[in-house]
Design a protein that fits this description.
two-stranded parallel ribbon, about 55% helix, about 150 residues
Length: about 150
């Protein structure tokens, strides 16, 4: 749910309305169910943009999503920088320590400390980004997916 909040707010910031207002559903799919969802999307002719963490395993991601690469209505988005494997580090990478501290109301001195806090407080972090009136930027792979 925390990733969904970030994607929804990024969409709102870019388009001036929530995804549902445009008929866009943001859903979280875990485990092997993603393949079934993408197969259904293809059969229905629905556009699907997958946003995922790289988890430091780029080769595994390429293999996992290879069957869907040739399908024009399906796109897969992730950052290739394995130093920033999940959403929380990606937010810090894109916005910097000072901006993220300001949004979260924290005072961490280093990127590492801030990321550890964010990972341990995923929901609070996502809610802070969702609720803030401060300007922030979505990671590039999310920004590309919500165009």
């Amino acid at each position: 749910p925390s990733d969904e909040l970030i994607v929804q707010k990024a969409y709102f910031k870019k388009h001036g309305k929530m995804p549902l207002a445009d008929g866009v559903d943001i859903i979280t799919v875990k485990s092997l169910a993603f393949a079934r969802f993408l197969e259904i999307a293809e059969k229905l002719g629905v556009t699907a943009a997958v946003i995922t963490d790289n988890d430091g395993k780029l080769a595994a991601l390429e293999k996992k999503y290879a069957p869907f690469k040739a399908i024009a209505s399906i796109s897969v988005h992730y950052d290739t920088d394995v130093a920033y494997q999940t959403l929380e580090p990606q937010l810090v990478k894109k916005n910097g320590v000072a901006k993220v501290n300001s949004i979260l109301g924290t005072t961490y001195a280093t990127e590492g400390e801030l990321i550890e806090y964010m990972k341990s407080q995923k929901t609070d972090t996502a809610l802070a980004f969702f609720d803030t009136t401060e300007d922030w930027d979505a990671p590039d792979y999310i920004d590309k997916a919500i165009q």
